[in-house]
Specification:
This protein is α/β, with parallel strands linked by helices and about 525 residues long. The protein contains 14 helices and 15 strands. The radius of gyration is 23 Å and the shape is globular. Bound molecules: phosphoenolpyruvate (PEP) and cobalt (II) ion. Belongs to the class-II DAHP synthase family.
Length: about 525
Amino acid sequence: MSDRSSMNDSKQEWSTSSWRSKPVAQDVVYPDAENLSTVLQQLKSLPGLVTPTEVDRLRKQLADVADGKSFLLQSGDCAELFSYCNPTQIEAKLKLSLLMSLIIIWGARVPVVRLGRVAGQYAKPRSKATEVVDFDGEKKEVLTFRGDNVNGFDVRDRKPDPERLLKAYFHSSATLNHIRASLSSGFADLHAPMSWSFSHVRSPALQAEFERIVESLTDALDFMKTVGADPESRSESGSSLSSVDYYISHEGLMLEYEEALTRVQKPSSKGLHSNSSAEREERTPSEVPYVLSAHTIWLGDRTRQLDGAHIEFFRGIRNPVGIKVGPSMKPDELVKLLDVIDPRCERGRVTLIGRYGAKNVDALLPAHIRAVNASSHAQSVIWCCDPMHGNTTSSPSNPSVKTRLFSDIVTELASALRIHQSLGSRLGGVHLELTGDMDENGFSVTECVGGSMQLQDRDLARNYQSHCDPRLNYEQSLDIAFLISHFLRGQRLGKTSGAFSPAPASTLVNDQAGGSPNEEQDQILSELVKGISARP
Ligand code: PEP
Ligand code: CO
């Protein structure tokens, strides 16, 4: 264990409110403290949105991810709005997650743990507390939009309102209810006919590759049907071909809200499992604190200070947790953080969500992997790649529009896969901002540039919907799923040529303007990267 002098002392007693004695980064100041306290009391009496048994089931499934037996797919909006709580948008997100997981399972031949940034992803950290806006023709400084559970996107509605926390609870609850009801009504039935169209794919080689994968996947599903693996047959884990597990997550930013939805209780015997030798030694657990606002929450890159309130809260909860790891993280700081959050080194308790940016990942990720590998956490963490948050840029034609280049996203993801492979480590998952939303003409959102549909910078205005970060659209999300599937298949079959090129992926990106990739390089990757011609 490392030196703990400058951090949260994990020997100090933890309670659901011990975070209150620490500095709270990204704090929201409510003008009406009394109203806040009334709202929090109400939240404390409401039922949890998820159950401890479900949280423990996810812990078990994440332990499998840490062991390399499953792959993690975490995906959804940057910021959910209350208005997204409608059947069309909820189903679009769910469908996309199911399709992506199916594609990944086909290549990897391991289960996929599906985790939505959904049913509670309302609060946002911001780099600036205020902004200057046009307010009835006048320039005025107002608080920035902090997410629908804090204030409104409308510039006249920026005062933090505690009632929004209650609204967040009820919108999360309605969203989750629709997810659960859809899944238990056969939404995930893989035997239902699927219409795949690749008409948007510009590259003939890529189109052929996608068609090959889908043909093979459809054959596999037909075969399973023939041998009797019908939708009714449940597997040991309780999932079947027609009903699947789907978990919810959000950034654990608003600690008042998380505290109010924490319930200290005994784990159900159903949810118990031996996750590590340390845990096996653990007494039949007495009462433990479960955050029941989501199955898992993550710690953002702006709120992971070693002596801060967020880490204090996160260290005591039973839920598995994510930690965003950005360029400012020092390797020894990362290990200290793990010592505090996961002192018993439970497999799958912590998912490290790297978000370095395509330009930084080669320089920064290896040192982080080496530091963790040299610590007691080497076997227990899950490494996950968030190729979104280090790659946000401005549109060259309109600098006030945020975008992301598909080539940067693919480059970071490809680099992460390659770096882990070369260091004997494993990338266990991916964390994506995406949406399956379409306009009334069936046209996907246009927020990121590139992908197999070769979306250009000039196309961004066509259907730009995000109130926060730019998201991958339906087609771009499937591109990423095919890419991951293709890589994991190559790895499974022991083919280096089926995997990404041994050369850094950035070479591929730079090569794309120049023409054909060399033979060593991976075809599907270079075809995907070719989809980008507009770079700022
Ligand atoms: C996010 O996930 O939406 C986010 C704000 O990420 P990060 O903390 O990595 O910047
Ligand atoms: Co975001």
